[in-house]
Amino acid sequence: MTQCDTLELAIIADVHYVCKAEHICPIPERNAHLGRELLRRALRRIQLSGAPDALVLMGDLVDDGRAPGAEHDLAALKEELENVGVPTIVVPGNHDGAPERLLRIFGDRPGVHEVKGYLLITFADRYDSDDRAERSQEGLALVRDVASSHPGAPLIVFQHNPVYPPIESSYPYNLTNASEVMKVYSENGVVLSVSGHLHSGHKLICADDVGYIICPALCEDPFRFLRIKVRGGEISVQEEALKMPKEPPLVDVHVHTQYAYCATTVTAQGAIERARKLGLSGIVLTEHAGHLYVSPKDSGRIIEKPQLLRRYRSEGRDRMRAYRKEMEALRSSFVRLGLEVECDRNGELSLLEEDREGWDLLVGAVHMLPEAYSENVERGFMMVTEKLLQRGVKVLAHPFRLFRRHGMETPRHLFRPMAKLLAAYGVAAELNFHTNEPDPEFFRLCLEEGVPIALGSDAHALYEVGEFAPHIEFLRKLAVEGNLKNILFYP
Ligand SMILES: [Zn+2]
Ligand SMILES: [Zn+2]
Ligand SMILES: [Zn+2]
To answer: How does DSSP assign 227-249, residue by residue?
Structure first.
């Protein structure tokens, strides 16, 4: 066995998910209805910064495992793990119902898991009717056995309830025989003990050469999880929150709604809820203007046949007014109202004259070029973009994505001219990761030319709203000095 390798773990605790289960979570702070989505967000974040060697779920995956239907919620959470490709270890919690069922659904068992030469031991401690958990004598014997058959090996142990420090509360947080457990841990080479259950969590502390940490609940604000690195007996912990920092203020300038034909789960109401919970300072609803005029079948034809807009309006078939009316009711200093517009073959916006006024923001996008430019895409791209800028958009959505989408090489020689064009019109460049990989060089040039950067989720699904970690990391890598606020676009 080699212990010189670094073991990287991601730890997620207390999801308390409720969807299909016949149960209403009595504690709104648990955000029970968001559990699955929070897990997905955490998993995406974990993948973004490099997959760990193992993911450990610390229990209380659902809020009431005994409620009829809870098994569907557990299965839904398991489904989220499927595409992650990271070995997952599961520790049952007091809310999960029968531990055997939980472990069966997740394909795990309590006991020893060997990962990268490290020995990870999980426990399914039993609860009495008052929710008190005790470590069994067999559980303690297991630690001694593993230690004696692997002399000198650092052990890492996982259990739902905290062992140490003692939690002052009328509720029994700690294992009832915690001091006995601690003695066995310290005498048998346990380097780290990980728990959940106490939703506020607790930072890493040491007692008798054993490190003890309590992972905070994913389900409660600010939606935290842990990344732990173990190298021999050395431990480093990084706590991450899904909630965005207050500074700089972050505004999502590009969010779709239930009116988009390409929407999956996004709704205006749901997006606003996420934006608030995840710490954004504001959100702009920017529906595809074309989708608000014509049918799905015609939505790809409005560039070549701009007269369709007028036709749908005069036939009373468009949804522009319905969208405006419905969204108007949600409008506030936090929720702004806008559109994502395109340019047609005549160089006009995909927006009827009488609908131009009253928006907080027009985001301009080049999703396709008029056929006339099919022979000279680069020239067409620059011309259509300039038309958008002339027609009053304040943000250019996903610059250069057109090329990627059409399987063409990105014309990097246009980065500087495009940045200059945006600067000349005072229009922001949108940083957008929705099916997109923005080029750092383009944004570096934008900053050089003084072009503000707009943050857009381009959310078509709810889990995309309020996740600006990739955006922030991207800007940090560009070595933006000082407060990001100075370079960000605010509507
Ligand atoms: Zn819990
Ligand atoms: Zn618990
Ligand atoms: Zn969009």
So the answer is: EEEEETTEEEEEEEESSPPSSS-
pTM (two decimals):
0.95
Cα 437 to middle of ligand 3, angstroms = 15
Distance from the alpha carbon of residue 447 to the mean position of ligand 3, in angstroms: 23
CA of 139 to the centre of ligand 1 (A): 22
DSSP secondary structure letter of residue 298: G
When pLDDT is cut at 50, 70 and 90, the band that residue 373 belongs to is very high
Per the CB < 8 A criterion, the answer to whether 228 and 52 are in contact is no
Where does the pLDDT of residue 152 fall: very low under 50, low under 70, confident under 90, or very high at 90 and above?
confident
Q: Which residues contact 43 (CB under 8 A, 6 or more apart)?
A: 55, 80, 81, 84
Average pLDDT over residues 259-286: 98
C-alpha radius of gyration, the chain, whole number: 26
Q: Report CA(59)–ligand 1 centroid distance (Å).
A: 7
Ligand 3 centre to CA of 77 (Å) is 28
Write out 368-428 in H/E/C secondary structure: CCCHHHCCCHHHHHHHHHHHHHHCCCCEECCCCHHHHHCCCCCCHHHHHHHHHHHHHHCCE
Is residue 320 within 8 Å of 355, Cβ to Cβ? yes
Q: Which ligand is nearest to the CA of 435?
A: 3
> What is the distance in A from the centroid of ligand 3 to the CA of 376?
25
Ligand nearest to the CA of 171: 2
CA of 39 to the centre of ligand 2 (A): 17
Instruction: Answer whether residue 396 shows pLDDT above 60.
Output: yes
Residue type, 296: P
